[in-house]
């Protein structure tokens, strides 16, 4: 066994443990390149946000990290939990990567609507239970103990996300923002070291966005879980992220701290549809203006409210394919 698989992944330059190490991955669908030669590193205990216009390749990146898609080029290694040795995720099934310490939520809510909120969370928790079907059928002591512990853990997670009073409500009867938080609770039930949140604020109101920002910080600071976030709401992103990576047309165009990204001419150009030179001139003329936060908030609201034909847009019926 090589030394690489015996020691945690650590960045020599920063002395920080690496969670995801992505090197020059390229993902193609026929003649369409969804991700083009993208490299990035995510470090332990940080909140890393991936932003970019619609169609930039953000969800395709998430799907590559979690085994849904297999990039044709490049490598991805993962050290899911503290002290884990880095392992490749290329070619591994999604449930295997989940057991390696990765949980995720989806752009489209994927709850079990006919189950209660408590039962939905227990679905995630029970992926870590050791008792098998025979022990369950016979009601053996270890199975009964695990069942009690999983129920208590589910209540704890519902309390964490502010839904303990909704424990016995059917998931399909919850408000949209509550369903978003329930999906996060279910993901946390798998005991992850890193959680991937794909547009968790989509379809939520300003109060729910504020509560979501507090929840993301709580998951990261109190539970010690690294957070990888895709989100179009720039005010939310800028308020919670430690670092940002920007994609555009499948390529990484910028990486840095929120204040650096906010005034990066290439990023402004990607969002506003201008040239980098025009964006740089605009930023220099108005250095106090938070261009991305102000401009993209309006653009996102418009995109979420209407379709090109003028019809109303329902975020619960959109597909992952639309966001690649």
UniProtKB/TrEMBL annotation:
Signal peptide: none annotated. InterPro entries: AAA+_ATPase, ABC_AA/LPS_Transport, ABC_transporter-like_ATP-bd, ABC_transporter-like_CS, BCA_ABC_TP_C, P-loop_NTPase. Residues 20-274 form the ABC transporter domain. Residues 279-324 are annotated as: Disordered. Keywords: ATP-binding, Nucleotide-binding, Transport. The keyword ATP-binding applies. CDD domains: ABC_Mj1267_LivG_branched. Gene3D superfamilies: P-loop containing nucleotide triphosphate hydrolases. GO terms for cellular component: plasma membrane. One of its GO terms (molecular function) is ATP binding. One of its GO terms (biological process) is L-alanine transport. It comes from the Bacteria. The keyword tRNA processing does not apply. PANTHER family: AMINO ACID ABC TRANSPORTER ATP-BINDING PROTEIN, CONSERVED COMPONENT OF ABC TRANSPORTER FOR NATURAL AMINO ACIDS-RELATED. This is Leucine/isoleucine/valine transporter subunit ATP-binding component of ABC superfamily. It comes from Nostocoides japonicum T1-X7. The gene is livG.
């Amino acid at each position: 066994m090589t030394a690489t698989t015996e020691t945690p992944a650590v960045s020599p330059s920063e002395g920080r443990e690496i969670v995801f190490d992505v090197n020059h991955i390229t993902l193609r669908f026929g003649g369409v390149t969804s991700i083009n030669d993208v490299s990035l590193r995510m470090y332990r205990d940080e909140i890393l946000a991936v932003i970019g216009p619609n169609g930039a390749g953000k969800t395709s990146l998430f799907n590559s990290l979690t085994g849904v898609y297999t990039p044709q080029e490049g490598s991805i290694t993962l050290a899911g939990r503290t002290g884990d040795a880095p392992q490749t995720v290329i070619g591994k099934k999604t449930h295997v990567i989940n057991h390696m310490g990765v949980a995720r939520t989806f752009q489209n809510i994927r709850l079990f609507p006919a189950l209660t909120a408590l039962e939905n969370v227990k679905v995630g928790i029970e992926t870590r239970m050791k008792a098998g079907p025979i022990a369950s059928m016979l009601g053996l002591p270890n199975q009964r103990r695990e069942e009690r512990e999983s129920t208590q853990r589910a209540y704890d997670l519902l309390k964490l996300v502010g839904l303990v009073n909704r424990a016995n409500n059917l998931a399909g009867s919850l408000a949209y923002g509550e369903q978003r938080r329930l999906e996060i609770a279910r993901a946390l039930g798998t005991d992850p070291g890193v959680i991937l949140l794909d547009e968790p604020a989509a379809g939520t109101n300003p109060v729910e966005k504020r509560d979501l920002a507090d929840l993301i910080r709580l998951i990261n600071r109190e539970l010690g879980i690294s957070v990888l976030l895709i989100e179009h709401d720039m005010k939310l992103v800028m308020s919670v992220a430690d670092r940002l990576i920007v994609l555009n047309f499948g390529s990484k165009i910028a990486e840095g701290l929120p204040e650096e990204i906010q005034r990066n001419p290439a990023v402004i150009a990607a969002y506003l549809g201008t040239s980098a030179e025009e964006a740089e001139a605009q930023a220099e003329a108005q250095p106090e203006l938070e261009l991305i936060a102000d401009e993209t908030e309006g653009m996102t609201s418009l995109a979420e409210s209407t379709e090109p034909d003028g019809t109303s847009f329902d975020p619960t019926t959109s597909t992952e394919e639309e966001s690649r």
